[in-house]
Amino acid sequence: MEAVLQRVSEAQVRVDGAIVGAIGAGALVLLGVGQHDGEREARWIANRIAGLRMFADETGKMNCSVREMGGGLLVVSQFTLLGDTSSGRRPGFSAAAPPAVAEPLYERVLELLAEEGVDLVERGRFGANMRISAVLDGPVTLRLTSPPRPV
Question: Can you give the pTM of this predicted structure?
């Protein structure tokens, strides 16, 4: 799994003009599910997202997680994170999981984030054409990649 986290003061996602998910302070999470991902990767990435210290403490240092600061997460499925741009001009998406595999794992990550103690977990709409707006804070943008499976 791949995730890009952007610290935000607010973010929202719209589908067909209607807001389907919105948060105040927290992180916008773009989540890509790979064709070989499963429960192991979902647990790993949810744990990392919930515990990643990307928010300032009282001294201004990045020492707090979203869970500790009581912020929200807006998690949006983003298969293009797995795009291969190593040759040609059109990205290839063969590393991305097909929707029948990706959607349940996306939903599982949302469940696991709540289990990890994140108070507010909002979502986009899987497979929809979404319009995302965010006010970046910092800016702070971090990327997570789940470890490869043991051979």
Answer: 0.95
